[in-house]
Amino acid sequence: MPGRLRRPSAKLDTVKTLTVSRIEGLKGNLRPPSDKSLTHRALLFAAMAEGGPSRIGTPLLGEDCLSTIDCLIECGADIEVFEQSEFGDRPFAIVTRERAWTSPDIPLDCGNSGTTMRLLAGVLAGKPGLDATLTGDASLSRRPMRRIVEPLRQMGAAIMGDTPPLAVSGRQLTGIRYMSPVASAQVKSCLLLAGLSASGETWVSEPSKSRDHTERMFEALGIEVMTDGDLAVGVRGGQSLSPLDFDVPADISSAAFLLCAALVLPASNLRLLEVGVNPSRTGVLDILSSAGALVEQEGLRDATGEPVADLHVMSASNLRAFEISGSLVPRLIDEIPVLAVLATQCEGTTRIRDAGELRVKESDRIESVATGLRAMGATVETYPDGMDVHGPVELKATTIDAAGDHRLAMAFAVAGLIASGETTIHNAQSVETSYPRFELDLDRVAVRS
Ligand code: S3P
Questions:
Q1: What is the topology classification, in CATH, of domain 18-34+249-447?
Q2: Residue 214 Cβ < 6 Å to ligand 1
Q3: pTM value?
């Protein structure tokens, strides 16, 4: 049914347990869920666009993006979501901005979504007269917001709170040049969004290049994005976004679970369709290749400024340990949990370093991955900025707590597919945030003996 989307209660409130047993392979064609980063941006930019409605094809309707939709509606955007029909038509959303952004009557609940909170804060901070409070769930409430609040304050923003809740009172902002100490697309995007309403130019540089979806989408929507080398980007204030017509490709971060599972299972032949292969996101493909796996990219094409391809993968043997460090880290930051699972099946010691950011994701992903893998029989050493994983090892099924972190729940599910016995993953409801059909999709392509 078409209609404005409002949710009385989030699916994340219900506790869910996943049980997974060994299978032989993954076979067939499957389109992974749409890209989370791109869906957030498409929704937000559409709600900011001037001059007509925007159409977003195949938006991800997972909990994180639903939080973005809810927050935008509270700020006065009109968003109609047409869900997948019984005939299999793809979902789409129509976003219209008929009135100026308004102060929401209630706190803006960003749920589990750091992207929602950080990007929205950048927009709201530059809207004089608008007041809003941004809140989140227990996990988001622990995550650092100083990384955006500090530079926004340098721009003249009035924001209270260094962790959620953040109370934002919109102000006229002034552009700055900011050197971010972390490679973070959320920080970069927040400041570029604030820069659109600031006077003068706003520049952000980062230690290594993070995903560049905001820059690409800005350019597609009529914003001039200035660059200084590969690591600094800037915008001039006073530019406005045009409406968009954008089909969201599938999410390589979600595809990564299926790729890794297919590789380590003996009878796989899987094609993942319409996957976004933006080079700032394809670190996982580079690592799979260095591990000795062959993932073929077929039919490379462009989808409104984002490269898209089908990925073909088959079972692999004799996988080698790999190293993740330096500028590779932001290109695969969300895939590290499942790559750690893969590492347990590779010959040698896999080293992951320069990835301290993992400690401030939806959970402390260094400790939680290590704890879960050790419980399944793997040898893992942790470091402040990473871990060593020794392989190959035969994983044993056990009961694991996903700590309410979607990427952990799915990484452990992949471990469960190769382990002997039945793996039980508690607190797996968070899968809804990025991959609502995870179990259904696995079931559809699973080869059982
Ligand atoms: C995201 C950027 C990354 C990533 C997150 C989504 C985005 O976070 O981990 O899942 O959409 O900009 P950081 O930019 O904070 O590293």
A1: UDP-n-acetylglucosamine1-carboxyvinyl-transferase; Chain (3.65.10)
A2: no
A3: 0.97
